[in-house]
Amino acid sequence: MKRTLVIALFFGLLYGLNAQKIITYPVSDTIPHNNDFTVKVRIPGGEWKDLYEYEVLVDAHKVQKSSMVNFEFEGTVEVAVTSNSQKIKSVQIRPLSYNIAHRISGNTIRFALTKPTNVSVEVNGDIFHNLQILANGLETNRPNPTDTNVVYLKAGIHKIDSLYMQSNKSLYLEAGAVLVGKVVCNKVHNVKVYGRGVLYHGQRGVEITNSTNVTVEDLIFIDPTHYTIFGGQSVGLKIKGIRSFSAKGWADGIDMMSCSDVLVDNVFMRTSDDCVALYGHRWDYYGDCRNVTVQNSTLWADVAHPIMIGTHGNPEPGKSEVLENIVFKNIDILNHDEPQINYQGCMAINVSDENLARNIRFENIRVEDFEQGQLFNLRVTFNKKYALAPGRGIEDILFKNVSYTGENASMSILEGYSIDRGIKNITFDNLVINGKEISTKMIKPGHMKLSDFAKIYEGLFVENVQYKSSGKEIVDNKLHSSILKMIPNDTK
């Protein structure tokens, strides 16, 4: 019995050691290098591997040169980040909800990761000259390069202004492949665009119009001129594991016009306009927006909204549209910077053009302090810059387990347009502001309303706003990666 146990333990340990793996990618110097950091990774106790620190432009307000590295691993990986541009006084690794412990030795930061993730390493509070680490899991779905149903782009530069997809085909970018251009999926079905490569400087990243069953997975998008992913009047879209960085005006992340049955999962969006925006009719695209889930993601809006719903629709009599059955859950919001009051709100529902927004849920949303703007902005409005009519209404909206920690949020707004174009049935369940739950325990007869404690202005034509206390802690999505006992003090 003891011998069997010893053998089992031996093979278990052997398997654990064999499971540890790091894969670095071929480098393309078409994308400039950023010297702000030197980044190395290794299996605990193993040899360090140098990573290429890519330059990624961020923040259209004042374009800045940020840094990005990427690799893939299995098991545990140690990361050593040396700051070359400034002496380290303080460090944050975000999202803060991941609780990633770190150690500082001289000008080098050390920490460990035990599962795939996307994090930002920020020295001395600098969120613009920071380092984004994109740590992937091992790739398991790499296709056969000779498969005639796959357009296979190998490592290297591929300059194609517009690569048009055909139905029942896939496009694969292997690690180290850089596609300079955009991918177009128009009137197609059963298409997949994926891989560990980069889409660089395209007019858009991937454009999906009048199509069904299109998947975009794992790619990195750097500096698109316009949207990262644009959807127009399409059904059955899956967007999984992508990462995006943009720095131009109107360089939104994922924008959907009249799309339904959409899943957005495990994305990291750092964009210079809305990170995720859901609309009705715009341009040549018509129809409702239904059944959309955005989950397990990190949203960072250097300009405008992290989450935006509404604005565009069909004002023609008898042809009004609905945005409904929409869920945002398990999301970290890292920034929101918008000086224009009309475009503020980390979580915004602004309906114009006869739109009706209903049955929308925000759950387990963690908002860190941001530069400027509002936490919530729900308005039935008439945006005369983009619309031809006011919206019809907003109703049945749930905010459950939403937390905000910070000081920069201005007054949030809930406001209808008229008595028949109002807002109703808004529920805040376990809303936590700076560690305090907004609940009835805060108030006494004749004192302030809960909306005052939450800094939410309830304007005209708003009815049935509720604040509930669930008594449950906010889900914090910990990565449990602080294995500092496995990290020796040396960096050699």
Q: How would you describe this protein?
A:
- The chain folds into two domains: 20-138, Dextranase, N-terminal (Dex49a from penicillium minioluteum complex, domain 1), CATH 2.60.350; 226-468.
- Helices cover 4% and strands 49% of the residues.
- It contains two helices and 41 strands.
- The strands form four sheets. It has a 28-stranded mixed sheet that branches.
- Mean pLDDT is 92; it is low at 1-17 and 472-492.
Helix content: under 10%
Question: Can you tell me the residue ranges where pLDDT is under 50 for at least 5 consecutive residues?
Answer: 1-17, 472-492
Helix/strand/pairing category = mainly beta
Number of domains: 2
How do the helices and strands line up, and which of them pair or pack?
Layout: H1 2-19, E1 21-23, E2 37-42, E3 49-50, E4 54-58, E5 64-74, E6 77-83, E7 91-94, E8 103-105, E9 108-113, E10 117-123, E11 131-137, E12 150-153, E13 156-164, E14 170-173, E15 177-186, E16 189-195, E17 198-200, E18 206-209, E19 212-217, E20 220-222, E21 229-232, E22 235-240, E23 243-245, E24 254-257, E25 260-265, E26 268-271, E27 276-279, E28 289-301, E29 307-310, E30 322-336, E31 347-351, E32 356-368, E33 373-374, E34 376-380, E35 393-405, E36 409-410, E37 412-415, E38 423-433, E39 436-437, H2 450-453, E40 456-458, E41 462-468
Parallel strand pairs: 5-11, 12-14, 13-15, 14-16, 15-17, 15-18, 16-19, 17-20, 18-21, 19-22, 20-23, 21-24, 22-25, 23-26, 24-27, 25-28, 26-28, 27-29, 28-30, 29-31, 30-32, 31-34, 32-35, 33-36, 34-37, 35-38, 37-40, 38-41
Antiparallel strand pairs: 1-5, 2-3, 2-6, 4-5, 6-9, 7-10, 8-9, 10-11, 38-39
